[in-house]
Write a structure and sequence with these properties.
about 350 residues; alpha/beta; Rossmann fold; nine-stranded mixed sheet; 9 strands
């Protein structure tokens, strides 16, 4: 009888590590728009949030690729000097969500106003959502976000953005994407015919809310939920909680038998942002608020458990990378009172 467990093979992962980065580059070069030499900004739209005395313009639905969902909105402060940038990536499990999400909460609206008042632009992106017909899995979503970052950098002069001062920010799926982008080695493809793909993917800092620690779902039982192993959170529990169909869709495979194939192991390693984290990565800020450190009884609790943030903190401590952590369920706060807004402003000022 075939087990539902993920058989993690670190030997295979190591053997395929060189191929992983090659496959990432190949995937990343697809889907280019036909003309990237110029950017024609639309007329400014009415700001969706009250700006008061803040001088800034809001531009909506700017395409960064040729997909129907690959668009972004951006607030640009009116300033002679180039602005730093926060690029926000929305959550929704890669199945739903929208770039308008950060415009709906009072706290996030105030955050945007704070950034604009300090000459920091704020972009919010959409990306291709996973459907039953998706063939490339979550890597499509990740690579869309990568392209959005590179596109904005390529057009930094037209947008009056300082391309060397960029902080990624996201919630849930967008948080994991931000970590994947921020921890990944440089993905600029200097030989690519599309100049957008030649732009750097390295950033100044990362801010994440309710994040996952890795998208190698098969490693969650050991890397994240080991404290609950004795209570039953093993590989089978995680598979049953998430669902085989969802996992196959996530990895872009069409049968469960392929979940431990060499190609899928490469894929899983390529989206394991926890293992991508190295000492030369940017400082990051993690918020996990209102989530108890208890047995995960549903997918929401599984996906947003405080143990994800704890795994990131432990890894950062081990390799010596700077990080700030608020993990309410574990009564952890290492920020010394620094808010996410203050963190962003300090990072961009120091850069």
């Amino acid at each position: 009888m075939k087990s539902t467990k993920f058989a993690i093979s670190y030997v295979l992962i190591a053997l395929f590590s060189i191929l992983v980065f090659a496959s990432c580059k190949t995937t990343a070069t697809t889907g280019s728009i036909s003309d990237t030499s110029t950017l024609k900004l639309p007329q400014p739209s009415l700001s969706p949030i009250e700006l008061g005395n803040i001088e800034a313009s809001f531009y909506k639905d700017i395409p960064y690729d040729n997909g129907t969902e690959t668009r972004f909105d951006i607030f640009l402060p009116k300033n002679i000097n180039p602005s730093g940038l926060v690029m926000f990536i929305h959550g929704g499990g890669f199945l739903q969500g929208d770039k308008a999400d950060p415009l709906r909460g009072a706290a996030s609206k105030e955050m945007i106003r704070t950034f604009l008042s300090n000459n920091i632009a704020f972009a919010s992106i959409n990306y291709t959502l996973l459907t039953r017909e998706s063939k490339h899995g979550v890597m499509q979503c990740l690579n869309d976000s990568k392209r959005a970052l590179q596109f904005i950098r390529y057009h930094s002069k037209e947008l009056n953005i300082d391309k060397n001062k960029v902080v990624l920010m996201g919630s849930s799926a967008g948080a994991g994407t931000s970590l994947w982008l921020g921890f990944h080695d440089e993905m600029a493809d200097k030989q690519n015919n599309d100049p957008v793909n030649r732009e750097s993917t390295r950033v100044s800092g990362i801010v994440v809310m309710s994040t996952q620690a890795t998208y190698d779902l098969g490693s969650w039982a050991e890397k994240i939920f080991l404290p609950f192993r004795a209570e039953g959170v093993d590989e089978d529990y995680i598979v049953n909680m998430i669902g085989k169909d969802r996992i196959m869709n996530f990895y872009g495979i069409d049968s469960w038998e392929k979940v431990n194939s060499s190609n899928t192991l490469k894929y899983r390693h390529a989206i394991d942002m926890l293992s991508l984290m190295t000492a030369d990565d940017p400082e990051f800020y993690v918020l996990n608020q209102g989530r108890p450190d208890t047995f995960p009884k549903n997918t929401g609790e599984l996906n947003h458990h405080p143990l994800h943030s704890k795994a990131l903190m432990d890894r950062a401590t081990t390799i010596g990378i700077k990080g700030k952590f608020i993990i309410d369920g574990m009564k952890i706060n290492t920020t010394n009172g620094e808010s996410r807004e203050s963190f962003v402003m300090r990072i961009l000022k120091e850069k």
